[in-house]
Design brief:
The chain is of the alpha+beta class. About 35% of the residues lie in helices and about 25% in strands. The chain is built from 4 helices and 5 strands. The protein has a 5-stranded mixed β-sheet with strand order 1-2-5-3-4. About 30% of the residues are buried.
Length: about 130
């Protein structure tokens, strides 16, 4: 039994992912996959790398996720699974790359600017 580790990130979320050969199921933060991600869209997103590599039944996935919201966490787990699959077998890289599963989404929250209400929004102008 071999274990492969990788890290995935998205926005503020960081996922540490372990693929365990011969195990079954997905476990996130010591909770069941369905319990942790109640939205169907997030569950589908997480399983994309395993389906692209045709390894849905071969690996058990264990992940620890911190920060961000549910959608960012799901994307972080997805990237972590894809990177761990490439560590397992380098020949999977073209298939995962084609599906866009190895690309880190660089978008993050823009910082608040001085003299503004938010990142871009200014205070309301009044002539007085």
């Amino acid at each position: 039994m071999s274990i492969h580790y990788a890290t995935g990130r998205r926005k503020e979320a960081i996922a540490r992912v372990w693929l365990e050969d011969g195990q079954k199921g997905l476990q996130i933060n010591d909770r069941s996959f369905e319990n942790y991600f109640p939205r169907e869209a997030d569950r589908i997103r997480i399983q994309e790398p395993l389906k692209a590599a045709n390894f849905t039944d071969r690996f058990g996935v264990r992940a620890i996720v911190k920060g961000g919201g549910p959608t960012g966490q799901a994307a972080a787990v997805r990237l972590g699974i894809a990177r761990a699959l490439v560590k397992f077998d380098e020949n999977l890289r073209p298939a995962l790359r084609k599906g866009g599963l190895l690309t880190r989404d660089p978008r993050a929250k823009e910082r608040k600017k001085y003299g503004h209400k938010g990142a871009r929004r200014s205070f309301q102008y009044t002539k007085r």
